[in-house]
Design a protein that fits this description.
CATH architecture of the largest domain in chain A: 3-Layer(aba) Sandwich
Order of helices and strands of chain B: HHEEHEHHEHEHEHHEEEEHEHHE
Radius of gyration of chain A: 26 Å
CATH topology of the largest domain in chain A: Pyruvate-ferredoxin Oxidoreductase, domain 3
Number of strands of chain B: 12
CATH class of the largest domain in chain A: Alpha Beta
CATH superfamily of the largest domain in chain B: Thiamin diphosphate (ThDP)-binding fold, Pyr/PP domains
Radius of gyration of chain B: 22 Å
CATH superfamily of the largest domain in chain A: Pyruvate-ferredoxin oxidoreductase, PFOR, domain III
Largest sheet of chain A: 7 strands, mixed
Number of domains of chain A: 3
Number of helices of chain A: 20
Strand order of the largest sheet of chain A: 9-8-10-11-13-12-18
Oligomer: heterotetramer
Shape of chain B: globular
Helix content of chain A: 25-40%
Number of strands of chain A: 20
Strand content of chain B: 15-25%
Largest interface: A-D, 71 and 70 residues
Bound molecules: thiamine diphosphate, iron/sulfur cluster, magnesium ion
């Protein structure tokens, strides 16, 4: 029903309220119910920086947006078709992203003078006509819920807490769904009284929709059929997918994994997830800081486990020196950076892709290393395996970039069959000197400390090529520096050809991206193409080294526009590598791209309204 | 390090343990004596060089791993403890020896040392304390004396020095010993005890930097003065020094140990406190003294090790990764 | 902080000291009580807000500077001590208050805290110890209990916790006090003493994180149990608690303080050790206890401050920069 | 006499021996004596990593090279005209850089079997004919010295120590100099006995040259006249010049300076120098690590001194996070990086220019800051002042790059007149809000903590433009990110036009450099031009932001070749900024460029033998 996202078979719903209102649960459950009907979907949870922000404030608004569709869904949606606003602040913050004519469901009980004031409203927007362009459904949800859950016998406070399930029931009805799946989830998840209250609220909300004859907005949940390829699916967010990928990658390489980390938003969710996976060969160590976290991971690799560390921007900064040691020592290591807004502490809970310079170039000395970036929750699983493959076959630290949006966003994910995943074969070190570089990969063998008969000394001082002795010889340093660069470059020999997501080589415009912008970019390219414009889309997984065929492919396009949530870092890198123009569409507002933003800029590029170099 | 490793006692000699590498310390540096003692220690202990790893930071002391024919990792400044922790967690059977200078351990690396000792990783930690930054040519370190003149403190250091012993004991260390570099036999003995200790065997070695801080311990180790300045701790024996002529007694008024001369002011040997290495309070009193320095094993207590707990805690391996990938809620698209 | 600053006693009220900024801690968080006490303290002390700077790291506790109408710097995680040191060296008349959480101070920032206290910078350091990482949603901190279940330690923490007091005393701190967040009056009193202390006035505040570690100090602060768990130290008075019914005496056999009940087993009030806040040994014994927690000023000693020494040492300004540029050997090219 | 460096009025002398042989003193004194005669000169001290490397080893060789000339001297010279080798190892290490036909002075007493073996010689090179192409002067300097100093009555060990002064006396004679200046220096510097011994050795060496009728090699020290502009001169190395610049810059800005540092080679010499300048408004604080060092410096700036911190590569890595805070907080700060060979611990005592990526791009998030690089010892003075000017007028951290070579190398420096230096005027903060950005510089006012009536709160979280309140507002973050970039870009408005060192716009080839390669590049360009080739040379002081006119100037050249002691970082940055080809000549051997290396590659570029993009 949203014309802007190009299909009438999709719907964007956003739940918003106080952090304490259970918004994330509501959104998650709504998505799960939708997924069970076979719908494709993409979600965007967006919560405040404060642990418990004061109720009713605009900065305390928690939101969860989901786009669901009967065709493939690539983003959580630009504009909202249905907004649930549980208080004035939630309305205030989200109104500007409403689809004209969209539906707004308000809980009147929360539109008190006090709350209106907290949200910065002088007059009640639900009564002063400012919502005229929308279909407003204002209900006293609070009261309706309390009435509904009475028989559960819970306290008034507990009863009020069920408000989110009442709302969920209503939305399910409005969009053509039923409550069966959610009801059984409630039963599994909560204790007796609470379960009863939540169930009653859910059912009452659903029934209300029917009896009050609100009229179904869009029966999308009732539609049969799925755009997804056949298979067994689950819902997964980027952080969980990445963790599963790490555990799976280690298993494919025949290794155990040691994850050293120090809590930091938004990387912490990986720490929490992995901490529960001890039974799957994953040890977790919460270190005293980020330096120790990478040190412990490197120590683990030194002794034969696969060391992994995860963090976000400020923590990455602290790991820089140890990355240099990992490069000099030629040990495998995976460093996950869940990017967030900066500089400095910046916007810890907001998303950004601005650590690309740091990942590719941000070390002292000539210190190259491979960089891989995940582009969707499901892709995070594959990228984690890819990062491990590169680390252990090329004996190098690898940086794996994800971001705050990707970490939290979820999508239906076809569960991979373990057996179908290709094993990661590690070169056999037997009989090789620990300092000898394999001609094919330019990598030395991995002989973990403790290996019988393999004892040797390594360190961060320059070593003589071949013998491994400390060396200050000028010619040797030249050779070793070149070798370190060539070793990373060599990885490109093992990469698949780059493949366009949308379009053809030679098109008028290439939209070039990396990371979590993929969905929006692919959608934009597809929609522009549908308009007859020659727009292609390429999304890079490997940011260092670039694939061998990338340069020629880029050269085939009339114009190249890098779209990134930073000030143009990929564009800069591409120009730096290839010495040819690349323009950039940048966004650093802490929010993901909207499809329309990309389309608008692409049209400008095509009409030549902007210079080639951003 | 615990002594329960199942590696066979290897028949190697100290020579076998010496790596084929030119030792690059200054002639006369105290590090040579320590190297010698370490080689003897690992030989006497019959360790397996393939199961032994020397891990160091950066500094003169930290060159150590190059000289031992075992696994060795010369890492970065101040971070050896973190890498040792990772190695030990990954491979608990590894015999890990950390070697680090006073700058490496107590300046840039102070935080990791704090967390290493409180976690009680099962390894040996050798702190070479020369009260100076050797490798960078002689700046004041956190253990340098007040007033010490160095190129970075031309008017004398004004930073109150940190006592390695007081610091690690306050941080929760389970083993603290101190030995001068010149006391070869005791050094070997103490290192063996540190190795046999289950947990972090922290040994502070007073090491002479002949180039930048020569004679820092001249009084402590000098023939004439040593008896008055060194007190060798022995479990169950009274805290006596100066050939038994002096001792330390507990003075309730001062609420501290105070020195006394046997036979003077009515104090006898029996007034000396009997050394109990398991008493952290006593160890803290001993470690803090600058007049007479407690040597040998000052403190040792039994406590669980992090690596031990970590591995005991590790759940039994589940093979069902496929089930994990599926999670709790799946649906099928036909 | 020394009390010799020449700023005039300002006539401000606690309300004047409160910044015009919405406080964003969780409802019920212990930080509110501490904020209230701090505002009262600076008001009572009559400080000049233009000469006062609150400097913090990152964490819930570290949001503090935003709420005080003075200078404030919310820096980065674990590094507040370094920035405070720089500010204090640059402008010794500044009244500096560092505010930091247990993770900020004792995990990532442990090394800077060690060096801050040994250097004895003349400032107040408030450690909000809630035994958890609040801001990042509840992981174990270095002060978390053994066995504590958190999202990062789903099977319970296996790291031996660090005692803030033992740690800073071992590092050479010159002032250590402890107070629970709920003891409003004492908190104000202790902070005043910390401020008047010449050197680093280190105050550990037991703070309840209602969301992630609610009740961590419930026993220590609970009405029924508090008397048995808190011992308020007063200089020159016997170490008694439980309303004077119990005390701590020195047991030479245990070589430690041990609790006793007045009138039982022949022990009387006179057996209780008399508190001497200048005795570091006694303070170490007190700080290490988990059964009964020493509260109030546990330790305070006079020692030179780094900023004091630094400025005393600073040579008289020479105007002759031109001569410096010329150096000792010049020649003239005609 | 060295044809390769293009003038017959120059001479390259290299002293080499064990670290304990007093090589650095000899070289320094020889340079001082030469300077007093009005010669221009450039030096290259090169010492081992070990504190006291075992005597006689090749890795323990300490060397000091000086080129002196009656025309302007730009480098320490490619090939050596006169080599003093005090032992076989010194000969071995230095032989390959000898000018064919050059003079080699050997101390025979050191050519023992033991020493020959240590140096890796099977047979004595001074007797097996392998030195045939040189003029070899083999003397038992040891014995000659002992005889000469007998009357001073020092021990045999002390006597042996005077060997370097004997050698110095000889070299002074051979190159036309006298001993007067050195004699009085000895008198000032040493205690009685030792002074006598050293003086006697010096005089004996000089007399030996005369009486043994060795024949003067090149009487260059006896030649009158100077290529230097008139004025009062001193000899200065880069580290000292930089320190004087810092102290002077602070004074020009009316500020005191606080230098927070942690020892690290080769930055330590700055710590040592500044520690002695307390009387000139410079406080020095040796911190517990590099993080604390920059924290203390930033804290000082926060409270109204000028915070400066200095370090080298691994230490820079550790400072990264705090740099982000300085950017977010908009406080002045100068960070000096004395670059060395890497990655990791690398080659601490060897030079490299490989931290350019780190300086310009090596931080998490979009975190731009200005970068300035010194190109010669004297220029280090000016650059330090420039860094301070930018920091305090634009309220930003500034990175000032120098390197190990520059730190140690010395040259004659015309002592500036303090009065002639323009003061640094700081904008008056009075009446301005601490969060308000000046339209001209986009900088906020500096209101140090403790300022009467100026109290305010700052921090690393994103702040609302104008009000300074913590803000998670998307549009605000976009605005602030753009402002941070524009603020650094604004600095270019205040930069002078870039000026070519050699050549004209539109030439066939531009040699583009930065940092300590300047002398060699200018020499190469001048020599190529003398051959009639259209080669220009441009040396950049400002590496971020680039000057406004740089792009157009670069575009005027047929080809641009960046010459750098790294793997091509400046070339990459220029391509990244301008999207056009820039080639790179790279060298990472830990040694400075030789003029001939640059000339050779320049010729290849001109004949099109190489592709345009390196
Ligand atoms: C991050 C970093 N900072 C500084 C240095 C320089 N550095 C090398 S060793 C050292 C200190 C050496 O002192 P200590 O640890 O006491 O060892 P010693 O040389 O005295 O044995 C320093 C500061 C470095 N290599 N890396
Ligand atoms: C370098 C860096 N690492 C990690 C973080 C994430 N982080 C913010 S606060 C915090 C710990 C908070 O715990 P604590 O210091 O005890 O303060 P509390 O929130 O409990 O008051 C962490 C890990 C960060 N901001 N910066
Ligand atoms: S500088 Fe000192 S510590 Fe280092 S090797 Fe030389 S004598 Fe030993
Ligand atoms: S999370 Fe805990 S410490 Fe942080 S504000 Fe909430 S209650 Fe307070
Ligand atoms: Mg040392
Ligand atoms: Mg906490």
């Amino acid at each position: 029903m949203n014309a802007e996202h190009g299909t009438a078979r999709a719907l964007v719903v956003r739940f918003a309220g106080d952090s304490g209102d259970g918004i994330q649960v509501t959104g998650g459950r709504y998505s799960a119910a939708a997924a069970l009907t076979g719908a494709d979907l993409a979600t965007f949870p967006d919560f405040p920086a404060e642990i418990r922000a004061p109720a009713g404030t605009t900065y305390g608004v928690s939101a969860y947006q989901v786009q669901l569709g009967r065709d493939l869904v690539r983003t959580a949606g630009d504009l909202v078709d249905v907004l649930v606003a549980l208080n004035p602040a939630a309305l205030k913050v989200n109104l500007e992203e409403m689809q004209p004519g969209g539906v707004i469901i308000l809980d009147q009980s929360a539109f008190t003078e006090r709350n209106l004031k907290k949200a910065g409203y002088a007059v009640d927007p639900s009564t002063d006509g400012s919502l005229a362009g929308f279909r407003v459904v204002a209900l006293d949800i609070q009261k309706l819920t309390q009435a509904a859950v009475k028989e559960a016998g819970v306290s008034a406070r507990e009863a009020a807490r069920s408000r989110n399930f009442w709302t969920l029931g209503l939305i399910l009805w409005l969009t053509g769904g039923d409550v069966a799946a959610t009801r059984s989830w409630i039963e599994r998840r909560f204790e007796q009284d609470i379960a009863a209250a939540n169930r009653l609220a859910l059912e009452a909300g659903h029934a209300f929709g029917e009896t009050a004859e609100l009229g179904r907005i869009e029966p999308i949940l009732g539609v049969a059929g799925s755009p997804l390829p056949p298979g067994r699916y689950r819902s997964i967010n980027g952080a969980d997918a990445l963790c599963l990928g790490l555990v799976t990658g280690a298993k494919l390489a025949g290794l155990e994994l040691l994850y050293g980390s120090y809590p930091i938003t938004p990387a912490t969710s990986m720490l929490h997830t992995l901490a529960k996976l001890g039974a799957y060969g994953c040890d977790v160590f919460q270190a005293e800081d980020e330096i120790a976290a990478i040190g412990v991971a490197l120590g683990a690799s030194y002794a034969g486990k696969l060391g992994v560390t995860g963090t976000s921007g400020p923590g990455m900064a602290l790991k820089t020196e140890m990355l240099g040691l990992a490069i000099a020592a030629e040990l495998p290591l995976v460093v996950v950076n869940a990017q967030r807004g900066g500089p400095s502490t910046g916007l810890p809970t907001k998303t950004e892709q601005s650590d690309l310079f740091q990942a590719t170039l941000g070390r002292n000395a000539d210190a190259p290393l491979p960089v891989v970036a995940a582009s969707s929750p499901g892709d995070a699983f594959d990228c984690a395996i890819e990062a491990i493959r590169i680390a252990v076959t090329h004996m190098t630290p690898v940086i794996l970039l994800t971001d705050g949006y990707l970490a939290n966003a979820s999508e239906p994910w076809r569960v991979p069959e373990l057996e179908s995943l290709p094993p990661i074969t590690r070169p056999d070190p037997a009989g090789r000197s620990p300092y000898q570089h394999d001609p094919e990969t330019l990598s030395r063998p991995w002989i973990p400390a403790g290996t019988k008969g393999g004892r040797h000394r390594i360190g961060g001082l320059e070593r003589a090529d071949g013998s491994g002795a400390v060396s200050y010889d000028p010619a040797n340093h030249q050779r070793m520096t070149e070798l370190r660069q060539a070793r990373v470059q060599k990885i490109a020999d093992f990469l698949p050809r780059v493949v366009l997501e949308v379009g053809e080589p030679g098109d008028d415009l290439l939209l070039l991206g990396w990371g979590s912008t993929k969905g929006a970019m692919a959608q934009a390219a597809a929609e522009l193409r549908a308009e007859g414009l020659k727009v292609a889309h390429l999304h890079l997984r490997h940011l260092a080294p670039f694939a061998h065929d990338l340069e020629a492919l880029l050269a085939s396009f009339g114009r190249v526009l890098a779209c990134e949530m930073n000030m143009g870092q990929l564009a800069f890198l591409l120009r730096g590598h290839y010495g040819r123009p690349v323009a950039a569409l940048t966004k650093v507002s802490g929010r993901p791209f909207q499809v329309r933003e990309i389309k608008q800029r692409a049209r400008q590029e095509l009409t030549g309204a902007l210079g080639a170099v951003a | 390090m615990s002594d329960t490793l199942d590696h066979p006692r290897s028949p190697l000699t100290a020579k076998d343990w010496a790596a084929d590498m030119e030792v690059r310390w200054c002639p006369g540096c105290g590090d040579y004596a320590i190297l010698k003692a370490v080689l003897k220690t690992v030989t006497d202990l019959g360790l397996d060089p393939d199961r032994t790893a020397f891990i160091s930071g950066i500094g003169c002391a930290s060159r150590f791993p190059y000289y031992v024919e075992s696994y060795g990792f010369h890492t970065i400044h101040g971070r050896a403890a973190t890498i040792a922790t990772g190695a030990k967690l990954a491979r608990p059977e590894l015999d890990v020896w950390v070697v680090s200078g006073d700058g490496d351990s107590l300046s840039i690396g102070g935080n990791h040392l704090l967390h290493l000792v409180r976690r009680n990783l099962d390894l040996v930690y050798l702190l070479f304390n020369n009260q100076i930054y050797g490798l960078t040519k002689g700046q004041a370190s956190p253990t340098s004396r007040l007033g010490q003149v160095t190129p970075s403190t031309p008017e004398g250091s004004i930073d109150q020095p940190v006592h390695a012993g007081s610091f690690v004991l306050g941080a929760g260390a389970t083993f603290y010993a101190r030995v001068p570099d010149v006391a070869q036999a005791q050094l070997v003995e103490v290192m063996k005890q540190a190795h046999d200790h289950r947990g972090t065997g922290f040994v502070e070695i007073l090491q002479n930097c002949i180039v930048y801080n020569d004679g820092a311990f001249a009084e402590v180790t000098g023939k004439a003065t040593a008896p008055e300045r060194q007190l060798w701790c022995k479990a169950g024996e009274p805290l006596l020094y100066a050939g038994g002529r002096k001792g330390l007694r507990f003075d309730p008024a001062a609420f501290d140990l105070v020195p006394f001369t046997v036979g003077e002011d009515g104090f006898e040997v029996s007034d000396a406190v009997v050394h109990d290495p398991t008493n952290r309070r006593l160890a803290q009193m001993l470690a803090a003294r600058d007049d007479v320095l407690a040597m040998g094993v000052v403190f040792q207590t039994d406590a669980p090790t992090l690596d031990g707990l970590h591995h005991a805690r590790r759940p039994a391996a589940k093979e069902d990764l496929q089930a994990l990938l599926e999670g709790r809620e799946t649906w099928v698209v036909a």
